[in-house]
Amino acid sequence: MRVLGIETTCDETAAAIVGVDRAGEAKILSNEILSQIAAHAAYGGVVPEIAARAHVEAIDRIVARAFETAGLKVSEIDAIAAAAGPGLVGGVMVGLTSAKAIALVTGKPFIAVNHLEGHALTARLTDDVAFPYLLLLVSGGHTQLLAVRGVGDYLRLGTTIDDAVGEAFDKIAKMLGLPYPGGPSVEREALNGDSERFEFPRPMSGRPKPDFSLSGLKTAVRLMAERIAPLSDRDVADLCASFQAAVVDVLVDRTRAGLRACREAGISPSTLVVAGGVAANQAIRSGLTRLATEAGLPMVAPPLALCGDNGAMIAWAGLERLRLGLIDDMGALARPRWPL
Ligand code: KG4
Ligand code: ZN
């Protein structure tokens, strides 16, 4: 069984083919990605109009490359999946329309995948993770703790009341004059910084409901940066390290509350999983590994290439849906807002 997955919800044009063999072993047969980072860097963030146009220009080439790399013909796949949201509507429509066109021409099933479900199920593509599991989903637009009970069966335990974690990284980077995308820039600076120089707040710490708040932390970093300006290289590194340490503490504390909430809901998670672009952060991965050990659970984080947006996660979610007979018709619409 093989599925083509197309991802165009933000600033990556991506297409991949994922398969499972007869023994049920999952395999990524191709995973092509064209990042638009250079096109948006000058603006310090993603510009929707530029993104949509870049997706239109790249999509056919990226899909063709996914087939070439896999050494497969269109007739050799079983279904076509595309992320139908949440995300920037212009980009989503490009991927969705391409997927529907391929499905119509070939007569193969079409599957509309929720981008967040793609992140949520990635751990099952790379590791043997059984349902239910506790998922910390941290990306540029989303910060959620979910009990993943099955494909399409998600219990949201908590979410952010203001900024997403990735968004906070991006805003701090912009404020400190670091290149876009902010997460990797802040992480790089933090490596050389003193995480104890500034004591930033850990919002929501100790609260039983596993919700998040990042905006107060972001403001604290801004006020400190303004107070000590002009900033030396050392100041920037120390601000990044102190900010990142606060984020790690917050995520560990909130995920601990998520574990408790999960068990209170009668769900006994098999694994602690972290996913989304921010899951690439090594300090965050280490903090969560410590928490998992404390809780007696295995911790699974996707390999770095599968943390950020990619086509394989959409192909895999499509494959999980196809196995359950969950296919969509051509009426499936782009959904800029689409909670899991
Ligand atoms: O999942 P993703 O690729 O796109 C969305 O669906 O949002 O996540 C992108 C986000 C950006 O905010 C980016 O700054 C952040 O993930 N990110 C990181 C790191 N790498 C990417 N944040 C912290 N540390 C990183 N190493
Ligand atoms: Zn994403």
From TrEMBL:
EC supergroup of this enzyme: transferase
Cofactor: Fe(2+)
GO MF annotation list: tRNA N(6)-L-threonylcarbamoyladenine synthase activity
Keyword Transcription annotated: no
Keywords in alphabetical order: Acyltransferase, Cytoplasm, Iron, Metal-binding, Transferase, tRNA processing
Domain Gcp-like: 27-316
Pfam families assigned to the protein according to its UniProt record, in alphabetical order: TsaD
EC annotation from Swiss-Prot or TrEMBL: 2.3.1.234
Keyword Metal-binding: yes
Residues bound to substrate: L137, V138, S139, G140, G141, D170, G183, E187, N281
Annotated binding of Fe cation, by residue: H115, H119, D309
Main localization category: cytoplasm
Catalytic activity, reaction form: L-threonylcarbamoyladenylate + adenosine(37) in tRNA = N(6)-L-threonylcarbamoyladenosine(37) in tRNA + AMP + H(+)
InterPro entries membership: ATPase_NBD, Gcp-like_dom, KAE1/TsaD, TsaD
Annotated cofactor note: Binds 1 Fe(2+) ion per subunit.
Record-linked NCBIfam families: gcp_kae1 (TIGR00329), T6A_TsaD_YgjD (TIGR03723)
Function: Required for the formation of a threonylcarbamoyl group on adenosine at position 37 (t(6)A37) in tRNAs that read codons beginning with adenine. Is involved in the transfer of the threonylcarbamoyl moiety of threonylcarbamoyl-AMP (TC-AMP) to the N6 group of A37, together with TsaE and TsaB. TsaD likely plays a direct catalytic role in this reaction.
Annotated family: Belongs to the KAE1 / TsaD family.
Name of this protein: tRNA N6-adenosine threonylcarbamoyltransferase
